[in-house]
Amino acid sequence: MLHQPDQLDLMFQALADPGRRLMVERLSKGPASVSQLAEPLDMSLSAVVQHLQVLEASGLVRTEKVGRVRTCTIEPKALGQAEKWITDRRTQWERRLDRLGEYLAGQSDKPTR
Hints:
Blueprint: H1 5-15, H2 18-27, E1 32-33, H3 34-38, H4 45-58, E2 61-66, E3 69-74, H5 76-109
Antiparallel strand pairs: 1-3, 2-3
Helix pairs in contact: 1-4
């Protein structure tokens, strides 16, 4: 799903908005209609639809229209890609901090002047 760095940028940009994060949280519990997603939010239905378009463009959400009802579902693979990116960064920093800790531990064994 995330074949380009631009897609990851779109995903984090989509998650930067608190309303969209609430939508993603709700969808993590299961599919929902646009109306169901709009219920707890203090925004118009058209604003919810615009936010959903951003989430769809980022790959985080998929929508399907059956009759008059548009149902939204979360795309777990996309969230997995974001999680992998974050985990990779965390792993790099943990390794660096481990090396720093080892270096500092070695320095404390040396006599001071």
